[in-house]
Write a structure and sequence with these properties.
The chain has about 300 residues and is α/β, with parallel strands linked by helices. It has two domains: about 5-210, Rossmann fold; about 225-280, Alpha-Beta Plaits (2-Layer Sandwich). The chain contains ten helices and 13 strands. It has helices spanning about 40-50, 90-100, 110-115, 130-145, 160-175, 190-195, 215-220, 230-240, 260-270, 285-295, and strands spanning about 5-15, 15-25, 30-35, 55-60, 75-80, 150-155, 180-185, 200-205, 205-210, 225-230, 245-250, 255, 275-280. Helix 2 crosses helix 3. The chain binds adenosine-5'-triphosphate.
Length: about 300
């Protein structure tokens, strides 16, 4: 099975613990968002997955095998860890060709990945002159050289313009749609809301949450509707009978989920219930994420 299994992973640098007994799984066919504030241990975990650092304790396997035991690693797992790591004097084509040759991959893959990442027209240009967005694409092309079923991207949208961000999001989704296991790190929840199916949240190296995006949104009030009316008790029963989930909100209001605002309005009209408020709640996922990770922040600014 194409997946990443992180089990009891711990990484210490001298007295500092960067990753602390971390366990989670990255499943195939979905984008798993790897979230945490700066310094949480995301990059360290990703480096260990890619065999670039060794764990102090615990293990990581890719589709059941340790990175060091994979005969041609790039055919199993590809990663974009540092988009700046491109030899500036090489063309995009020669950079990928050198990478293919040194990793025992067929040269014909170069054309395929250039095409897939939209770089064919600039393949003969020096990568040194590439914009950040193009360097990101080149890094992704390199990660795809071996056509791996497992992919890892460390903060891939950092510094990109809106068009670049949109392209990367769509690209991650398409890789997952093909059945690949995709792990993407970010320190922004808003970024993940539009890309990830699953969330793994860490703080100070420890697991804080391992949940589906849908469950996380529901638990944090996204998708609920605030309703105010003259007889909340009566309307709550009507809503429940219509399949909604209802709980009491502030000042005799109702917080309704599992039924869209439009349907709630229609139900009220049908039963001649007068509504004084019907507002879909835009609970900020970023707020929910801040709340979740607040105890794990290394440096908290003083509040006056
Ligand atoms: N080579 C190293 N030597 C010493 N300490 C390190 C090393 N690499 C990382 N650390 C420390 O480990 C902790 C986790 O860092 P890491 O880069 O993995 O976090 P991160 O979640 O990726 O953060 P960011 O979003 O800022 O990149 C930090 O406190 C960092 O200073």
């Amino acid at each position: 099975m194409n997946r990443i299994d992180v089990r009891g992973l711990t990484k210490r640098y001298g007295p500092d613990t960067a990753v602390d007994d971390l366990s989670f799984t990255v499943e195939p066919g979905q984008v798993t968002g790897f979230l945490g504030p700066n310094g949480a241990g995301k990059s360290t975990t990703m480096k260990i997955i890619m065999g670039l650092a060794s764990p102090t304790h615990g293990s990581v396997t890719i589709s059941g095998r340790h990175y060091r035991d994979l005969p041609v690693p790039l055919t199993h797992v590809g990663a974009l860890l540092d988009a700046g790591a491109v030899h500036g004097s090489r063309t995009a084509h020669s950079h990928l060709l050198a990478l293919a040759a040194s990793n025992g991959l067929p040269a014909r893959r170069v054309g395929t990945v250039l095409e897939r990442t939209g770089l064919t027209s600039v393949a003969g240009k020096h990568a040194g002159g590439f914009s950040l967005g193009m360097r990101q694409r080149l890094g992704i092309a390199a990660a795809l050289l071996g056509d791996p079923q497992v992919l890892i991207f460390d903060e891939p949208v950092n510094g990109l313009d809106p068009e670049g961000i949109r392209w990367i999001r769509g690209f991650m989704r398409s890789l997952a749609h093909e059945g690949r296991a995709v792990l993407v790190s970010s320190h922004l929840m808003s970024e993940m809301a539009q890309t990830a199916d699953h969330l793994v949240v860490i703080g100070r190296g420890k697991l804080i949450a391992d949940t589906s995006m849908t469950d996380f949104m529901t638990a944090n009030g996204v998708g609920t509707v605030l309703v105010r009316c003259s007889e909340p008790g009566v309307f709550a029963r009507l809503l429940t009978a219509a399949g909604a989930t209802v709980r009491d909100g502030p000042e005799s209001s109702l917080v309704v989920s599992d039924l869209a605002a439009g349907e709630i309005g229609k139900l009220a009209a049908y039963h001649s219930v007068v509504l004084s408020e019907l507002s879909p709640q835009q609970a900020s996922l970023e707020d929910a994420f801040m709340e979740l990770t607040k105890d794990s922040l290394e440096y908290l600014g003083a509040t006056s």
